[in-house]
Amino acid sequence: KESGYAAWLHYSRNSKVEKLPAWCRVIVVHGTDEVLQSAASELQHGLTSMFGQQPKISAVPVNTPFIALGTFPEHPLVAERFSAKEQAEVSAEGYRIRGIEMPDPAYSASHGNDDIKGQYVTIAGQTSKGVLYGVFHLLRYLQGGLDGKLKPTTESVHVPILDQLSNPANSIRMINHWDNMDGSIERGYAGGSIFYDNNAFTTNMERLRDYARLLASVGIQALSINNVNVHQVETELITDKFLPDVAKVAAVFRAYGIQIYLSINYASPIQLGGLTTADPLEPAVAEWWQTKAQEVYAAVPDLGGFVVKADSENRPGPFSYGRHHADGANMLADALQPYGGRVIWRCFVYNCKQDWRDRKTDRARAAFDHFKPLDGLFRENVILQIKNGPMDFQVREPVSPLFGALESTQILLEFQIAQEYTGQQKHLCYLVPQWKEVLDFDTYAQGKGSTIKRIVSGALHSPKHTNYGIVAVSNIGADTNWTGHLLAQSNLYGYGRLAWDPDLSADEIADEWVRLTFGRQGNSDGGTDLISTLKQMLLDSWNVYESYTAPLGVGWMVSPDHHYGPDVDGYEYSMWGTYHFADCWGIGVDRTTATGTGYAGQYFSPNTDIYESTDTCPDELLLFFHHVPYTHLLHSGQTVIQHIYDTHFEGAERAAHLRDTWVSLRGQLNAAMYEQVLERLEHQAEHAKEWRDRINTYFYRKSGIADQKDRPIY
Ligand code: GCW
Fold first, then answer.
1. What is the per-residue pLDDT for 147?
2. ipTM given for this complex
3. What is the pLDDT of residues 126-152, one digit of tens each?
4. How far is ligand 1, taken at its centre, from the CA of residue 228, in Å?
5. Which of 177, 229, 345, 556 maximizes ligand 1 atoms within 8 Å of its Cβ, making it the mutation to test the pocket?
6. Pocket test for ligand 1, best of 177, 178, 414 (most atoms within 8 A of CB)
7. Which residues form the Glycosyl hydrolase family 67 catalytic domain (predicted)?
8. Which end of the chain is more exposed for a tag (fewer CB within 10 A), N or C?
9. Torsion-angle region of residue 257: left (phi > 0), alpha (psi -120 to 50) or beta?
């Protein structure tokens, strides 16, 4: 608990309640379904931990109050509490919770309430997964009245406050691990892998189970367990050598309703099968994959499928054989189809060697240019995975124009929870506000209201199809508190909550996470100051980070390779092709249709026109779309150069303020957690000064224009 290992599931003791309230002394759960069993044991564990007494689990109804867990089809006891219409409103993984009367725990404990007989609270779903999510909902609620619609009414104990229907907006809610079998994690900032060490699988199943609990608690139901860059050892994950281990891991996650996926090496037929080609149209290649799929599914019958990074950053793919990506994806999809497997095919395909003199080639265009022409050519079990922005998880990017442009292809939106370019879990950067902006962005693909969240859930183009949703790159590792920076847990929590319900606000999610994590800690006991102060720190942090790093949407001013710390020209002199083109006259990338790369033309109207002109382009994306002089006047009324100075001076101050705020909470936090976070915030405050100075000096020297406020520039 002290270390943060239990994260938002620490279920701290409610000191106001002496013993287990009457209504939760028995949990009735029928059947042997393992997900239902997980739900019951989580509920038992949570209640025990919060109320200091263990509820019983019973397979049959009892003659005292009880909580019933079950699915509509299998459990008449559960079904009879909901009308046919109410049952029909619950989707495959949704849930309904009903408590006829749900007294305040303190009240019911002190009054015994044993006169109430029979079923008191019912948690029901179409499937056991739905029930599991419902249990986590109830536990969240009990930890602090956490649902906006379920505010605890401490005074009015007999109000029927629990009547809740919740369906996930997205069918697929997934996490990608970039873990390698040697135990390292590509872009991992919280220690080594919890899955592998030394080219073997972990034996620590307990840790995996706790990870499964964390994921299930926020509704995650799909997980790919190895890096999309599939190196030599990992190529063998789909062979006898490792399949038994994959099966063991799959079993741990299955009990929490989570399906496992494997990232595969597109060149496997060559590397494992001894073929001379991986050409998707070569029959021997297709046959090889069919046999392989049979073998894989014999070992793990409910494997979700394969994740594929092909023809990207030097990985093999169909381009080597003059084939396009639908050829490659469909060939694999046909192999997995008999087993219900999916192919998740990434759209992160671009030319990573670009000449700086060539102002037409544009990495931002690449995903659209490659995949738009293939729209409609993919099999039913292929899903294209598209990063939120056209570049690569920068602190600020426009939304990828491929969303909305693909009308007949199933898609997943890819976020990155790992803070690769946003402070690597050393800096505080709560990313939910950024994700919210993406999800709420209106593409106008089918007129007003064609938001990203409606596109990625399938609601806009394909309401009947279920192969849609959101995926994100994991930020966890073997560090005891999972995420290195304790406060970075909020990003994992927030991601899951948002994937379930994109209409939740960044504020609501921060509020939940802070209450669950710190609610009854130290001597605070959920003091409102602590909660609102911490919440504000989270909500400010993305903006703070942006202000002292790369300005106005230009991105990429980080050290090449490891991507940490300021290096304004680091990528400017690398062939990777992410130039900002700063010189003594100006800065930014001309991506207009009129004079630039034409990227702005990939959007629907009116976005395309908004981005095309400096008159309408939002300030925060100006340098993404336009090359302008330093004296260019922003909508804010400031020049570009003065904006750079101002935001960098302020940003460093605000970073120091984050640290000072944390220090002011010292008395309310437990010592171990306080120290962990303090260390990071100290570092951030120092590092923000370095960012400030490097950026300000660079632009002062380039532009020769002094700061209006005459602050020190080195
Ligand atoms: O963000 C970039 C990373 C690479 C990563 C790649 C990708 C797994 O810098 O490390 O590779 O994206 O998404 O494939």
1. 41
2. 0.99
3. 999 999 999 999 999 888 654 433 344
4. 8
5. 229
6. 178
7. 161-482
8. C
9. left
